[in-house]
Amino acid sequence: MATSSNLTKGFTFGVEIEIYLQPKKTKRVSDRLAENKWNTTSDLNKKRGALIKTAASFIVEAGLTAVVEVEELVDQYRQWQVKGDGSLYELKDKAGFMGVEIVSPIMNAADGAKGIWSDDLDVIFSALARVFDIEVNSACSMHVHMKPEAGWTAADVRSLFKATAVFDDAITKIMPASRKQTPWAKSSFRAITSSDPEEAKMVPELSAAERGLVKTFADMKASNTTWQHLFNHFDTTIQKTKDIDKLADKRGVSMNFIPINKDVCHTVEFRRPPGVKTAEAAKRWVGFALGFVSAALDPNSGWEQLWSPVPAKKDATVDNLQSFIGNGLERLANLTGRRNWKSVVDPKSFKTDPSNPLALKKYEPGVIQAKLLKAMKQLGSFEEKVATSVTNSSRSNSSAGGHGSRDNSPSRTTPPKKPSSNSATGTNIARSNSSDSGHSSRDNSPNRRAPQKKPSLSSATGTASTGKPTCAPGAAKATGSKPTSGGAATAIPVDSHKKKTGTGKK
């Protein structure tokens, strides 16, 4: 079956970044922490809440819109969120570092490699590095959510499954030790195995769909057939996007297809990247993810026909992967009219990491179980954030006579004016300037390029646009979600993952 795609202009995307922060010992930082009641408690959860509010307030001072409380999420195209992460345990060997998660708004690849999304990442990391020491470890990761502007078709899904299978081994080879066989971002095609009885107990059990795909892949590898055999399996199995659950029904894999069929966002999530400490590293993985998916969905490249007759025992090499990413970035440049896409990442920079996979028992105590529980949530942080933004915005519209507080353009081409930071504590960072109109405190500064028309993001299956936002109003409610805050008001407990998931279910 020929590869086809309705991708016409590029992608919208979002990122989730897990990091550890430790406040620098300066008067400016100490004063801000004190305003957020850092010094009034020895409770670890409340201290984390104070740190999160402080981090958000410094991001606001740098010129972006950042929120802590879920009640303030009203703008899916502008607001960043700083929240706690119950799966990031405090670093025992580096007292004072606390785990947080930074979640982006919906961003647009049409902005190009030097667009607003790139500027925003520069601002985020620069603002944080001035007032915090930043650390990552084997528990940290970065996730990239992606969606073609015209929505996903069954043909797109088939093509991406095929590419993910062909390049599975090469992707594993370029990862650092902690991401080679991570139980919460594992290969969809190769089971994690261990001869160590202690470690064997830590390997998550495969679902029926996972077992089926792993067996099909293993049988193909053991035979004298070609990659066409597996391609035929994908072509036969996936007749519509709803068929994804026949092959993948868990989120904790390298390329997570499940969000495509959720009531919100309709993204594919690339979960494999390690934690990042700099904007450059974050951009590099954005470029990798977008380049990979862009190449996989290219109907004119002939990559599928190239690999179909290749013996199944032969995996794509890292060199093959580099070329594939480069082709995808070139295609993205052509689609968006932004010729600078290759400047965000040099595909040749993704080289083989010779280290052995990190032994499961070498991960921080409790991290694997915490991460697996987090991966069982119905919605990831980016999906949950967008759903909550739409729900809150809808409520705001109703109470304010229909005046929306959303920025209608994911292609924001000029930086926003610094939002007023009346509250150094960060609790009211993105509140409306005009409570009677319902309009958010959006920045209309002349040095932020004027918003362009919002591309339609209405369909998970590539149907015609209805002009609706990415996530239909009320989506969070529809999925059984109950917004939960990542800020101090709710004080995300270290073991919060044991008590409830992000969907609010007990």
Automatic annotation (TrEMBL):
Compositionally skewed regions (Basic residues) per UniProt: 497-506
Region (Disordered): 389-506
Superkingdom field: Eukaryota
Extent of Low complexity compositional bias: 389-400, 408-423, 458-467
Transmembrane segments: none
PANTHER family: AMIDOLIGASE ENZYME
Protein name as catalogued: Amidoligase enzyme-domain-containing protein
